[in-house]
Amino acid sequence: MDIEVDLVEFRVPVENNKTIFIWDIQASLSEAFIYEALWSVYSAFGALYLVKVCPNAAVAAPGFYAIVKFYSSAHASKAQKATDKQRLFQNSPLKVRLSTKQNPNFLSGSQSLSHAKCQDLANHYLGFNGWSTRIVTLKDISKCAGVGWSLDSASQGELLKYGCIVELTIPQHGVTCRGVGVTEDVVDPEKGPEDKLWKISKLKKWAKDKAVVGAFEKVLLIVFGNGKVAVECRFDREEVLPDDNVEGAIQVNDISWSEFEPDDGGAEELPWDFTMDLSH
């Protein structure tokens, strides 16, 4: 007897076998209703990364189509087979197919999940009390980056840079790993001390959130067909993180704030260029 096993990473799912395409959605329904109905139906099959509802093209009949993206290919396959040609939330049957084409932009690798989506995915598979994080160090490293930073040729601004190391613990599986987050911004001297204090507060939060994301990226969930989950932690041999007794030490590559957007809890924007498998 074969045991069904699926691997789930804390990364944006880009594989076509994790995406289902739904169409023949009636025009009489609102986008908000369709979104809530699809999320309710398909979240019963497994953790969802995204539900996207779109109106049909002008050349097509009025109505909607939708894209639902799972973290697990096994869950996507089960959902497609169970819901194809079913009415679900409307009077006529829906057509549901697996996507068969990936956007070329996906070939370079997937993106990091947002902080909020890391938490949602961890809660789904590990439980709300199945994991925890703690700050090992959160430090102002502005001086390490040099004094001052030029905004343009006519003005100077003070560079603020914060680094954070967070430890992620999954006690039931005996897994512990760490992540690093570095963020920076520039204080405009014309805006006064209030602007500096506000930016320091934001940078500390963003550095911590980025470190949590970095820790989750090392976690690999092994999901079995019976619902049980095993957890592995992958380590980078070149990464050197300090022990607790090395206060404030952070050894990381220089990361610009421009590479990290603050987490607003929304889905990451990705291009949508999918085709469907119409053979089954």
What does this structure look like?
The protein is of the alpha+beta class. The protein has two domains: 13-106, RRM (RNA recognition motif) domain (Alpha-Beta Plaits), CATH 3.30.70.330; 115-259, no CATH class. Helices cover 21% and strands 30% of the residues. It is built from four helices and eleven strands, in the order ββαββαβαββββαββ. It has a four-stranded antiparallel β-sheet with strand order 3-4-2-5, covered by helices on one side. Strands 6, 7, 8 and 9 form a four-stranded antiparallel β-sheet that branches. Strand 3 and strand 4 form a beta hairpin. The longest helix has 24 residues, at 193-216. It is flat, with a radius of gyration of 22 Å. The model is unreliable at 146-155 and 244-280 (pLDDT under 50).
Jot down its keywords.
Alpha-Beta Plaits; single chain; disordered C terminus; 280 residues; alpha+beta; four-stranded antiparallel beta sheet; 11 strands
